[in-house]
Structure formats: structure tokens, C-alpha cells
Design brief:
transmembrane, mainly alpha, two-stranded antiparallel ribbon, single chain, MFS transporter
């Protein structure tokens, strides 16, 4: 009589749900400034270029803190590093509401400094997502997993843009920061109680761990007894080898271009609706949710398509590149908005563009596929450094375009052109997508 093997648990999907929830709050907190932006611009008398610099403040520190954040993830693990990240960015978001008690230069300076602090605190978040996906998901499920947590950026707008627009309209712009920051503090403690590495999770059985491990998951990556406790990473050798790899560099540059679309949506899009399309801030909050719904659906669909291509026998390169190239091509449709007048048509075209952007936003799946096991946090941090440099350049470039031309027409062309560069990166530069291995060892005994 044979003993029946226990069925594998599915704890990894619960972990993914937590990642999705945290990332939703992450992006909602980033977008608070965009929803409050028109009112802040009016009250503080900011020019388009000044507003561009305020919008970009988050990304300056977010980019600069990426490599330290990646080092913290690799040294201390995702659980504790990510907890402090969530807690601190939420506290700083709440403090944004106190800017209303200040005036003039003091208000603008405080606003800028708090956005810098939020950016620094959020730095470990997406590299942490990538590490956790690498630890918990086999290759054939990783595209879907990465697409789901990445699509939270759209879901954040779907869920919170109407709520935040209503809060500004009803209680004033300060209320947005108090409510969203408080929600994040609660989420930080939920994270601490629910997230573990595969081998440490009390509800994951041996069958699930064996299944994901056999499928390519790095099940030891987040374990308490990992070798990082007795070794340290040679940071500069690691960075040099990562940046010296053509495949990874192509992925990193591609992410910069993809995030140009993301940051247009997070910063200037509500202003575009109010200023160029003459909508009220309340209406803009609701209307902005429609392209976000399309982006969310496209984001999930892109991951599902990619994983199904793998399961049907296609190579990892074909499975990841096909949605990215097709999605980015569809994103360029936003330029059509320069040639139509009806609001419903503008929103339809923007929805189509962000549907494409969602399909193509598989960069984090590629990072999880390619990051070396010794330095998953550092590879994700470099990827995010490149990607979020767009958070610095995009708001400022669009601010200058707007101040120079008085219209968003050039801005939409600028954003669409970045989608084309993404396509060129993946077709001409990236080559075969595979896990990177260091030529020279980067781990040193302590």
C-alpha cells in the first residue's frame, strides 16, 4: 500500500497578494503629489518648471538610495528591510500634510525635502519584490507573479485616484497625505506578521518548496541561515560586472524608457487633464482611473501571455520579449491625443496606450530571471536606478516643454519616443535572456 504524498501548499500566492497590496499603497503614496498637485500649484504659485522639480524630488533620492537599498536587502533580507521601508515612507507621507501650516519658501522647501525622504525610504521596495519573486516562484510562474505586483501601480490609481480626488475636493489637499500615510503604517505591521522566505514560512509545506525549487526558484535566498551571514558582497566588483554585461545593460536602459511612461502618468497626467483638457480636479481623479484600469489589465495579461509562451515550449527570450515589444508599440498610440479634441476619445486613446504599456512592463520578471543568486538585491537596485532616473528627467523635461510651448503636444511625443527606444533595446541589445553568472567571484568570507 503506497503512502499518498501530501498536496503542495500554495503559500506563494498569498505572498504575492501581500506584495500586490504593499505595492498598491507604494504607488498610491507616490501619486498623492499628483492628485494634490493642481491645488498645491495654485496655493504656492509654482511655475510649470518649479512644479516639475517638486514632482521629481521623489526620484532624486529614490535613485540615489537604490544601491544602498539593494545592499541592505542582500545583507539583512527582504522581510526586515522592507518593513522599515514601508513604515518610514508612510510616516513621511503623513508629514506631507503638515506643509499646509507653512507658507512661501518654507512650504516649498519642506515639500521638496519630504518628497526626498519618501523616495529614499521607498528605495528597497521593488528590488525587494524581485528578490521575493525569485525566492518564491518557479520560472514558469514568475512572469505572472512579477506582472501582478508590477500592475499594482495601475490598480493604485484605479482604487485611490477617485478616493484621493474626493478627499482633496471635500477635506482639502492635506487630507490625502494623512489618510494614505496612515494606511501605510498599518500595512507595515501586516507585512511583518505575514511575509517569510519559503523555508521559514510556517504554512509552506515541503512539497511546495520542492516544486518551486525544482522550477528554478531560489528557495534559500530569504532563509535565516543563508550564507550571507558568514560572507559579504564585494560591491564594486559586483556593480562593474553587472554593468559590463550587454544583456543586463539593455534591460536597464529599456526600463528607463518604460518608466518615462510611468512617471508621465504619475506626475503630469492629472495636470494634463485639468490644464489641457479643462477638467475639474474631481473629474480628473475619476477619469485618470480609466487608463489605469486598462494598464492593470494589460499588466496582468502581459505576464500571463509570457508564462503561457514558456509552457508552450517557447524560449525564455521569446516569451519575455514578445509582450514587451508589442506592448511598447501599442503605447506609442498616445501621440494620437495631439490630433483629437473629444475628451472621451482622448481617454480611449490613453487607455489603449497604457494597456500596451501594461503588457510590455515585464522588466521585473526579466530581472528575476536574470539576477545572479549572490546579488539579487543589487541587480534589482541597478535596474531600478536606471528605471527611476526617468522619475528625475521626465517631470523636468515635460515642465520645460510645457513652459516653452504652452502645450502638452511635445510632451506626448517625448513619452511616445521612449517607448520606441525600449523596443530597440530589447530587439538589438539584450540578446538571449538567461541568468547572469559572475566571471569573478563577488562573495568574500567575513
Amino acid at each position: 500500500m503506497t503512502t499518498q504524498q501530501p498536496q503542495a501548499t500554495r503559500v506563494r500566492w498569498t505572498i504575492l497578494a501581500i506584495l500586490f497590496a504593499v505595492t498598491t499603497i507604494n504607488y498610491a503614496d507616490r501619486a498623492t503629489i499628483a492628485i494634490a498637485g493642481p491645488e498645491l500649484k495654485r496655493l504656492l504659485g509654482l511655475s510649470p518648471v518649479e512644479m516639475g522639480f517638486v514632482f521629481s524630488a521623489f526620484a532624486w533620492s529614490y535613485v540615489l538610495a537604490q544601491l544602498p537599498g539593494g545592499w541592505l536587502l542582500d545583507r539583512f533580507g527582504s522581510k526586515i528591510t522592507y518593513f522599515f521601508s514601508i513604515f518610514l515612507w508612510s510616516i513621511f507621507t503623513m508629514l506631507m500634510g503638515t506643509v499646509g501650516f507653512l507658507t512661501g519658501a518654507a512650504a516649498v522647501t519642506t515639500l521638496f525635502i519630504l518628497r526626498l525622504l519618501i523616495g529614499a525610504a521607498e528605495a528597497p521596495s521593488f528590488p525587494g519584490n524581485s528578490r521575493i519573486a525569485s525566492a518564491w516562484f518557479p520560472t514558469s510562474e514568475r512572469g505572472t507573479a512579477a506582472a501582478i505586483f508590477n500592475s499594482a501601480q495601475y490598480f493604485a490609481t484605479v482604487l485611490f485616484a477617485p478616493i484621493m480626488g474626493w478627499l482633496v475636493h471635500t477635506f482639502g489637499w492635506e487630507s490625502v497625505f494623512f489618510v494614505m500615510g496612515g494606511l501605510g503604517v498599518v500595512m507595515a505591521f501586516i507585512w511583518l506578521k505575514t511575509v517569510y522566505g519559503p523555508k521559514d514560512h510556517p504554512k509552506a509545506n515541503a512539497a511546495e518548496i520542492a516544486y518551486i525549487g525544482a522550477g528554478g526558484a531560489l528557495v534559500d535566498l530569504e532563509s535565516k541561515d543563508k550564507v550571507a551571514a558568514t560572507t559579504k558582497l564585494d560591491t564594486w566588483s559586483c556593480i562593474k560586472q553587472l554593468l559590463g554585461n550587454r544583456m543586463l545593460l539593455g534591460v536597464y536602459i529599456g526600463q528607463y524608457c518604460i518608466n518615462t511612461l510611468t512617471y508621465f502618468f504619475l506626475t503630469w497626467f492629472p495636470v494634463y487633464l485639468v490644464q489641457e483638457r479643462h477638467m475639474t480636479i474631481l473629474k480628473a481623479g475619476f477619469v485618470a482611473a480609466l487608463p489605469a484600469v486598462a494598464g492593470f489589465l494589460g499588466g496582468v495579461l502581459g505576464g500571463v501571455i509570457s508564462d503561457r509562451l514558456i509552457k508552450s515550449g517557447k524560449s525564455l527570450s521569446v516569451a519575455r520579449k514578445t509582450p514587451i515589444v508589442c506592448g511598447m508599440l501599442l503605447s506609442t498610440s498616445m501621440i494620437v491625443c495631439n490630433y483629437v479634441d473629444a475628451d472621451w476619445l482622448v481617454i480611449t486613446v490613453m487607455s489603449l496606450a497604457f494597456f500596451g504599456k501594461g503588457i510590455g512592463a515585464l522588466g521585473w520578471a526579466v530581472v528575476a530571471d536574470t539576477s545572479p543568486k549572490e546579488a539579487g538585491g543589487m541587480s534589482g537596485a541597478l535596474f531600478n536606478t536606471f528605471g527611476n532616473t526617468a522619475g528625475i528627467t521626465t517631470p523636468i523635461v515635460i515642465g520645460y516643454i510645457l513652459q516653452t510651448t504652452g502645450t502638452f503636444a511635445g510632451a506626448l511625443v517625448f513619452v511616445g519616443a521612449n517607448a520606441v527606444v525600449t523596443i530597440l533595446c530589447y530587439l538589438l541589445m539584450v540578446g538571449e535572456i538567461k541568468r547572469f553568472e559572475f566571471k569573478t567571484p563577488v562573495m568574500r568570507s567575513i
